[in-house]
Amino acid sequence: MAVLKLDRWNMAIGDGEPLMVMAGMNVLEDEGLALEIGRHLQGVCADLDLPFVFKASFDKANRSSIHSYRGPGLEKGLKILERVKSEFGVPIVTDVHEIDQAQAVAAVADIVQIPAFLCRQTDLVIAAAKATLAAGGLLHVKKGQFLAPWDCKNILDKIREATATDFTILCERGVSFGYNNLVVDMLGIEEMKALGAPVTIDATHAVQLPGADPRSNGASAGGRRSGVPLLAKAAVAAGANGVFLEFHPEPDKALCDGPSCLPLDGAKALLTTLKAVHAAVQSA
Fold this sequence. Notes:
Layout (H helix, E strand, L loop, with lengths): L3 E3 L4 E3 L6 E8 L3 H18 L3 E6 L16 H15 L3 E4 L6 H7 L2 E4 L7 H14 L2 E5 L9 H12 L4 E5 L2 E2 L5 E2 L3 H7 L5 E4 H4 L1 E2 L12 E2 L3 H11 L4 E7 L13 E2 L3 H17 L1
Parallel strand pairs: 3-4, 3-14, 4-5, 5-6, 6-7, 7-8, 8-11, 11-14, 14-15
Antiparallel strand pairs: 1-2, 9-10, 12-13
Helix pairs in contact: 1-2, 1-9, 3-4, 4-5, 8-9
């Protein structure tokens, strides 16, 4: 399996490397909150000597309802992400939804993310890959809820054929299991790593109950917040090279996916545990 490097940040992800932490908030709400969350998580990861990448979306285009909060949009959102990046000296990961967003996003984000629902959109994947490669970043592709782990080979093949480069991280985030439910097959982590890519676990979105939030009568996703630490620990034990987590000072007031979001003040305890699990796996 390849080890991928972010040379300008002196970071790497893959077997034998420290556990990479991609963490932040689900969707940008305002600059002040982004700075608060970024400051806290940067401090926690610095104390634990873990590589930290701040994550947040500028737009959540795949919402259940047209009335759902989506975020500040491309222009304003990228300015907020640039502020977090410069304020705390940390790399950024954010997602791209449209082909014409690719270059602007790659200019700010050190890791460009393809959302799970869009992982088979060939033109988007190729545009994001080319823009990311030109900017010297990495690509983070979430495995669709409808894909088997080994089906990710087709995604990697597209990117390799278009760029002649291996710079893709795959992300496990659960698979649809009946109606309004997701499950995570931990055996899939090793299956994806066997394809030659590092693998992360999006433990936040893996506990979603799609279209099953009783607060909105099904117009948004429900979630099982208490399951996030469990899935994160299990995935790291299964060999995941990084974790993808979302926090909020008041999760129940988060404007998007609150039921799956963790309280910010619990970040240090969870990441301390995940670092210990990762160390045990590495030494085994």
